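Methods: example folding runs. The two proteins below were folded one after another, and each record is reproduced exactly as written to the output file, sequence line first and structure-token line second.
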Amino acid sequence: MNNVAIVILNWNGVNYLKQFLSKVVDYSGDCRIILADNASTDDSIEFVLENFPQVEIVMNDENGGFSKGYNDALKFINSEFYILLNSDIEVTPDWVLPLYETMQNPLVAGCQPKVLSYYDRNLFEHAGASGGYLDKNYFPFCRGRILEQFEKDEGQYDGETEIFWATGAALMIRSELFHKVGGFDEYFFAHMEEIDLCWRLKKQGFRFMAIPSSTIYHVGGGTLAYNSPKKLYLNFRNSLFMIVKNHEGILFFKLMYRMTLDGIAAIRFLVRGEFKNFKSVFDAHMAMYYRLRILLQQRKEIKKSTTIFNSKGLYKGSILWARYFKGVTRFKDLNQRFFD
């Protein structure tokens, strides 16, 4: 597997490197391991140089966030396959092999392992769980996570399956395809950039897979806490960005409906006195309007490169309706007829 480069993006994460890097080195066979440093001001570089001389280092000039950070670093990494790995992840023995075997199918653009919580190892973790999906209004959810509900891992999602998006926390992807579509959208900065990337590649007929025979444990919330207003802003904003760029069919009605649902969420924040969260949603919508012209141009360019849209992993129902009106908390209880 010397044609696999495991690339760990780091920004002032020396504590995570101290905690998790040794297992990445021990359990990843002959894969190249590369630290992509986003202009850290702590002693991350010194720690790696002193303790892991076999780990290569690529130093970015600035902290451009997840999207730009990876784009900048990967330009200098020549490898057939990348594994983009968060620094706050504990890997397990031979975790790369099942992913590598999956990538031998040339129709598979990327795949992910099963992601469990580092703190409660019986629970699926927010970032990817056992594979990512989108509903008809483009809200993301996972096998093992329905919005804020996390399932206990009892092996119920251990089968390999095609999904719509693979988590950016541990994403194996063909380098050629990553660069062909321009990598991550750097304006996203962080959050949902991997969904946008997967969506663009699926519009060229490629597949993404969840491979639960590979397991990792994710701390999560290492850069921004899950309840952070900044994280909320990025999620709402970037979701609108990717809808404008990638929605098939007439955009206006889908976008207005989705923004109405966002507005309902904003009113709920306001009623509950969560004024910063209300402002996050408002600011997200203003950011979408501000960038709309550029997004529409991106949409035209994506349409030009679209061949056959592989919609596998789209859920034809509403995940909000299923969760809040029907009380569904488990992926397996969703109406399976609604999946492509």
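Second run, written to the same file directly after the first:
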Amino acid sequence: MKTLYFDCFSGISGDMVIGALLDAGGDPQKLVKELKKLRFEDEYELAWQKVVKNGITSTKFDVILKDEGNNHSDEYEHHHEHDHEHLHDNHEHTHDHHHDHEHEHIHTQGHSHSHGHNHHSHEHEHHNHDDGHHHHHSHRAYKDIVKMIKESELAPEVKEISLKIFKKIGEAEGLIHGLPLEKVHFHEVGAVDSIIDIVGAAILLHQLDITTVKSSSVPVGTGKIHIDHGIYPVPAPATLEILKGVPIEQSDIRFELTTPTGAGIISVLTDEFCSFPSMKVAAIGYGAGTKTFKDRPNVLRVIIGE
């Protein structure tokens, strides 16, 4: 029995999950190869690198959209978390440190916020549009994503986990926006990076042979975020909806620590929310978020053991 424990002391986003799983021993080349089974690799490139966050060496994972060369992977989602700095991501790698600043600019484009929550997601997309990329992605309907996953040659377990996470996020978005699941457009979630973060997490868990997933409670941050629909509270409505049933932890960081994609991954995968479990530790991984905080490392820690 291989157990994986998510230690989310700084929240969770899709890019942080992938970075942490790669850092704990996931094979990035296998990830790239498996993701090609979704047949949309002409839209993105993947980048990962070691960065130091407040003294902790961690892995920063980014999705760079080919059209613009902007990577936003993190952007959104994590983004959010990190405020969107992701955008910067554009700079993508930079990111890491990125200290956000850079990004920030980017966001400026506006998305930033946007992502913030996918829900808003949509909205953003538009913005992004600003930049343009989003065209396609922006409008991937929930049913298109389901079809893409089902028709791929991914392992059955990978398909099953990916579909469950998308359904969880899609239902939350639909509830917030008053739409049935089949009408939900994954602006945000359908965005290329959300597909990569969600399916990529399922691929890496399968590759690492994880049988049980446990997690700490999840800090969501505080404050407000700007999205296309206006100024929203943190956690964003869709994120909070996805986290029903999950223990949320109060946090004084004025930022969106947990993004909808991160919330979907943790809520679907976790068998038990608990303090650090008794286990013989075999591997540890740190996944970097986009944002850098003054007094604490913005990383997600995963511990794998028996």
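Comment on the second run: The longest strand covers residues 44-53.
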